[in-house]
Amino acid sequence: MAEVTRKIGLSLGADLCWPASYEEIIKRLDLSIPMGRDRIRFDVERVKVEPYDLEYTPKYDLVLDRITHWFMTTREWVKKISLMDGVYVLNNPWSIQANEKHSTYCAMMKLGMPIPKTWMLPPKDYTDEGDVLVTVKRYNKLFDLNDVGNQVGYPNFIKPYDGGGWVGVKRCKDERALRENYDASGTRVQHLQASVEGWDRFVRAIGVGPQVNVVRYDPDAPLHARYMVDFHFLNGQEWLKAQRICRTINAFFGWDFNSCEMLRKDGVFYPIDFANACPDSQVTSLHFHFPWLVKALIRWTLFCAATRRPVRLNLNWQPFFAANDPDMSFDDKLPLYDQIAREHFDSDHFEEFCHEHLSHLDAVAEEFFGTDRFKEITREKVSALYPKHEIDQFTDHFFGLIQFWRKTERDRMAGPVQP
Ligand SMILES: Nc1ncnc2c1ncn2[C@@H]1O[C@H](COP(=O)(O)OP(=O)(O)O)[C@@H](O)[C@H]1O
Ligand SMILES: [Mg+2]
User: Fold this and answer.
1) 209: Cβ below 6 Å to ligand 1?
2) Is residue 195 in contact with ligand 1, taking CB distance under 6 Å?
3) Which residue among 73, 122, 126, 384 has its CA within the 20 to 30 Å range from the CA of 193?
């Protein structure tokens, strides 16, 4: 048997905690996976940014990228290596560049998802570049903002059509607030969206390949406490539904790694924000849920690298549209969409791979997250974000929550049924 090494590149920005944990756990797994006539080993390396010949051959089999959406050199590099050299890249750079919040709303509305009523508004202001002002003068139709506000209903949210990080998101309780917020919204194209009032659960579904975790979320809590540690906040059917919604979105847009915000009201999930490819992955936000994410990234990237999962650079929306029977309710269509999504992610094959080759991951990770090395990693991340006098307190806080996770994990592993 020949020994073959698959090279995984981590393309990073300010990330500290998840890559360090990812690297440590892969080292501890010490994998040598039989595949055909080879034994596959893995080598993980952090990608450096440097000039390159467009015809050079990269050394990576897979690149897990976190910066494509704002770091152009890397965005264009991941395009080159996936297009020319067949490197599997998470996430598809074309899909990230082309599909922002707006197109995700449109696509999922078309599939029947209950997205709250949303209008698009031209920006309030324009900068004088090229033919912009002459175009606006000639063709922008004067409109009555109150009329749009009334069509959408109050309260509503005005927010950038390609938003992220809560920047420029304003709740408008009446016409006056809408006018003030629109007048202050600057040069970005805006959405005006009906508020989901009186929701009783706010969840974030985090998807990595076919794996989806659903976490309760509190948008009003301080940043470190928004992802909640809570159990049984959805019933089994709802959990499955939230997973299916997230998996459908991720498969539709070719995102291997994305999160979906949903509000539950009267038993219905209203997705409101799901163009979050490369979502928050920090221990300082995810704490208790951080190990799930690191393990999910490990499983999916090892699977893709080991099996040489082919890169799919073109999106294929037709199967979803074909399953979109206008006579069926969304709840009835969702399992059909999910079936397409599971096939997209080669889920059965992935699950077999994990069962066969990564069965020790749970135990290795459980042990790792209790080590001094992991505490050091947590401290490094906390030190990068918190003032000096809070470093000890928050290191203990996040590390402590993960020790609680280890306890629940040990109970789960000892339990009669392994999910
Ligand atoms: N339609 C809505 N109904 C209720 N709350 C909303 C709605 N839209 C946005 N919000 C609130 O505003 C926050 C930010 O909006 P979101 O669409 O997630 O923007 P961003 O992409 O900047 O995160 C959400 O997390 C939620 O708390
Ligand atoms: Mg959001």
Assistant:
1) no
2) yes
3) 126
318-341 per-position pLDDT tens digit: 999 999 999 999 999 999 999 999
Ligand sitting nearest the alpha carbon of 161: 1
Q: What are the extents of the domains in the chain? A: 2-98, 117-194, 201-372
Distance from residue 262's CA to the centre of ligand 2 (Å):
10
Indicate the average pLDDT of the chain: 96
Domain 117-194 matches domain 201-372 at the CATH topology level: no
% residues pLDDT > 70 (the chain): 99
Domain covering 2-98, topology = Rossmann fold (3.40.50)
Mean pLDDT by 10 residues, the chain (419 residues): 94 96 98 94 98 98 94 96 97 93 97 98 93 94 97 98 91 98 96 97 98 97 95 96 98 97 97 92 97 98 97 94 97 98 98 97 98 98 96 98 97 77
Largest CA distance in the chain: 73
Q: What backbone phi and psi angles, to 5 degrees, belong to 188?
A: -90, 140
In the chain the first and final C-alpha atoms are separated, in Å, by 34
261 Cβ below 6 A of ligand 1:
yes
Closest ligand 1 atom to residue 199 Cα is 4
Q: Return the residue whose CA atom lies nearest to atom 1 of ligand 1.
A: 195
State the CATH architecture for 201-372. Answer: 2-Layer Sandwich (3.30)
Q: How far is CA 7 from CA 60, 82, 169, 340, 364, in A?
A: 5, 14, 41, 29, 21
Nearest residue to 196 via CA among 240, 152, 148 = 152
- Measure 169 CA to ligand 2 centroid, in angstroms: 9
Residues 120, 124, 127, 130, CA torsion sign: positive
The pair of structure tokens assigned to 30 is 């010490």
Which ligand 1 atom lies nearest to the CA of residue 163? Answer: 21
Q: Tell me, which fold does domain 117-194 have in CATH?
A: Dna Ligase; domain 1 (3.30.1490)
pLDDT the model gives residue 419: 52
